[in-house]
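question for whoever is on the cluster today: can someone run the full assembly for these? two chains, 921 residues total. i dont have access anymore since they changed the login thing
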Amino acid sequence: MKLRITNYELRIIKSVLNLCLSVFICGLISSAFAQSDGSQQNQTGKAGTFAITNARIVTVSGAVIENGTIVISDGKIAAVGANVTVPGGAQRIDAAGLSVYPGMIDAGTNMGLAEVGQGAPATIDVAETGDYNANAKAMLGVNPHSSHINVTRVNGITTVLSIPQGGIISGQAAVINLNGSTQNDMAVVPTFGLMVNFPRITLGGGGFNPFAQAAPIDFGEAVKRRDQRIEDLKKLFRDAENYAKAQDAYAKDKSLPAPAIDLKMAALAPYVRGERPVIFTAERERDIRGAARFIADTKVKGIILGGQEAWKVADELKKNNIAVIYTNIYNLPVRDDDAYDYLFEAPAKMAQAGVRFCISTGDSGAEVRDLPYHAGLAGAFGLSKDEALKAVTLYPAQILGVADRLGSIEQGKIANLVVADGDFLEPRTNVKYVFIGGRLIPLTSRHTELFESFKDRK
Amino acid sequence: MKKATVFLLLISINLISLKLASAQSKNEILIRNATVMTAAKGTLENTDILIQNGKIARIGKNLKAASNAQTIDATGKFVTPGIVDCHSHTMMDAVNEFSYSVTSMTRIRDVLNPTDIAIYRGLAGGVTAANLLHGSANAIGGQNSTVKFKYGKPVEDFVIADAPPGIKFALGENPKRTNFNPAPGQTPRYPRTRMGVLEVIRDAFIRARDYKKDWDDFRAKRTTVQPRRDLELDPLVEVIEGKRLVHAHGYRSDEHLNLMLLADEFGFRVATLQHALEAYKIAPEIAKRGTAASIFADSWSYKLEAYDSIPYNGYILWKNGVNVSINSDSNERMRRLNLDAAKMMKYGGVPEEESLKMITLNPAKQLGIDKRTGSIETGKDADIVIWTAHPFSVYARPDLTMIEGEIYFDRSKDIAKRAELQKEREALEKLDVNRAPGSGGTPPARPSEHRQEDLDEADGGNR
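^ ran it for u. tokens below:
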């Protein structure tokens, strides 16, 4: 049973508590408070064995099954096909006239790290201070009870990459499912990738303060500064490699002098060794080219985030097996003389050039629910509908290294599934059921709750 | 330097091509066999639209046009009225006069830049008219300008001459300016609280009422001394007299309600509540006054006072009989207002035509320009968009956008021009003045990136 306590009652209870002598009793009552907010925040859904029947199944990895069944048990897709036997005791969902899709994946968000953009700085955990923060882990900042999470998942997005930003090395990004009461419940790959803002030519100054004067620096100086930062980054990567070698050597041979633990170096080690990807933020051709060269030189596993002009660097990207997380559908072209659809048609151009890519909102959290429309708009400008769908399901799963578990409807994969009444990428389509990790998720959010509270007010 | 050169050349090319377009415009245009979504009288299949002298002359099946008429085959395509964006800062060289809390003397008309590339990009998204508003830095901001996006024309052609004038008001975080630290040595401006914001507005209207009385007395010859003109109070007198529309930026429902109560007291009606992301909490009070709401479809959480915003806002307001429009407040979002309208069907279930009205006829009504634009009806300006598919489909894009029968965006022509522009760009980049530093050229001017998602924000205001 949930307690509902009004502010007035709270005040009374608090005054009683002030008199309370027993620490034990205080603890007991405050734990009752923790459960008493009555919101959607702990609605993690219902586990069980489910069968979605009579469904049009868009597997994404294979052909569409026009009339099929999906069985979900133990959090996984137990069976999928046109002739699947429904196990006894399974809860049936008749999906006649509906389509089932794999949950969408947004590979570039700050989900859970940024609740309220302005006016509530205490809710922002996106950027650490300083330029080099390899040891900052998004997984430890994600708020499992952020209201953005429910708002996002009820529109069919079930997995995201949550990334820290800021500085040159921002920290480590986490692949999370949008369900769970704890960070651990949500984690799919808790330390997936290292975020690096690839150094670029910046001419200084600016910001949003209208009274602050920009202090532009000389262009030549800016180029030098960029080059120096890239060299610094390379040196840091080499140092991290050496650090890891020293630690390894000591692990094998304890007679060696013990090298001091350095958290930043230790954090970098798996990335500079190519065990996990480094995600470079880069937009313009020059910067993407630079990042590709850096990846080739340092032999890291590279991904580009942003990627406005990645299609112009197709050869280098392909040669070095670099994929692109494209975040620029809801952005204006930078130059006045860029074509009006310059950023809308970039995914089609990447597809044509054979660059591996996925489409992401690049949003801090609140608007991640628009992911299908980002993909759909790319579809309006040259990308096939099929590729547009893949760009928010299978392709991000592949780029995030989780395609064995997510991104398509196949037996054995995690049951992140969405049942919808039309084309998944269309704004008029309604989501009818969402499963995350095999749990049937309630279609409620901060928004539906406020709607219910006020819709009939006279 | 480099950028300026490229830009000027582009402008001159655009002007030339648009001159060609306008040479044809006096002829008749016949749009044939389209699915016409009128935003007034339903959706008409296999329908023709005949345009004469920039006006919609006839709508029907198998219409005949003069032999020299330009015919556009729209088979398989959708036609809608041009989109009207009821909250925009496009083509404005300045957004906020920050200095005072009442800046009603300032005029957006004075800072319009008709060469802003964002206009063209808006046209490519189907936008044909916009309410250009002062920013939200002041409790009472500047005078608006209602324009049509006649890109390539002189600035005076943009301004809709017979549109009623308006003015921007702002409530909450932005006029409080508590989201922004004053520069070192700068005194914080009054007001600092919601209490102060409302008092600033009340004080201004009391002064305006007294000032109006002075003029009324003078005109009625009760006094012989002519009052000194006050450019701050003139527009507020027009508000009291119902001659100037108040567009009131705000988020929290209590603030918007307080402003409407203040307006009741001074005897005017607030024309639109802008943003109004909590308007669903006070829908009956808004409906009762005949005030309209111009909202975002579903933006939320980007600031504290947007935390209670819900995408069902439009539906609840519509159900209560409030005139609702969906605006962009953004050069970026402006390009996809059709999808924002589609979201009204998704969240709550606003009917299709009512959703379409929220980006066409409703904003036209809010701006007092619905006699000329906002729907496809005979006698109205031919402000028309031809879409490749149903405009609420994410796969749809405009093929052609016209204003008063003149084509301002034509995708096929846009694409045809690209190779030529690319060549020109390359040639310009090779010029000595444009060569990179260190290779003998002059260093380029500092580029100004037009990437702000929200101009108001870049100017210190934020929506």
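summary bc i know u wont read the tokens: Residues 1 and 445 of chain B are 5 Å apart (CA to CA). The first helix of chain B runs from residue 2 to 25.
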